[in-house]
Amino acid sequence: xxxxxxxxxxxxxxxxxxxxxxxxxxxxxxxxxxxxxxxxxxxxxxxxxxxxxxxxxxxxxxxxxxxxxxxxxxxxxxxxxxxxxxxxxxxxxxxxxxxxxxxxxxxxxxxxxxxxxxxxxxxxxxxxxxxxxxxxxxxxxxxxxxxxxxxxxxxxxxxxxxxxxxxxxxxxxxxx
Length: 176
What we know:
This protein is an alpha+beta fold and 176 residues long. Helix content is 43%, strand content 18%.
């Protein structure tokens, strides 16, 4: 006798589901991708909105669990903005790196999912991994902004660029 359990979940805020989304690719962002209204109450020159979502499908047949989890890194144009009089190519590269940091963590998420042997509590287990990955990506984003001084420290900006480029290469097997 076989049992079928199908779990389908999408971890993303419903708000984002109705918004335009760009999946991460080798193509670089341009200012035309930033479609949100600038926040003039802040000194920030630009803001990148990106995130990781996953879709889970799991089947249990003859006591064997088959898990398929699709992970995608998205850029959200409507929530990303820039102030034309405050930006340049350095700021755009800084914003691109925020998106790349999110992609790096999507790859780490895929790696963890591939290596893990799940139990029948797969939905909870994946949610816990997802929560930990999101915590890590937020921490790295904050460190990146602090160390690069929001792109103003050109030496640190370059160091971060090389670091993330190398990390993406290290996890290239887990690129979607």
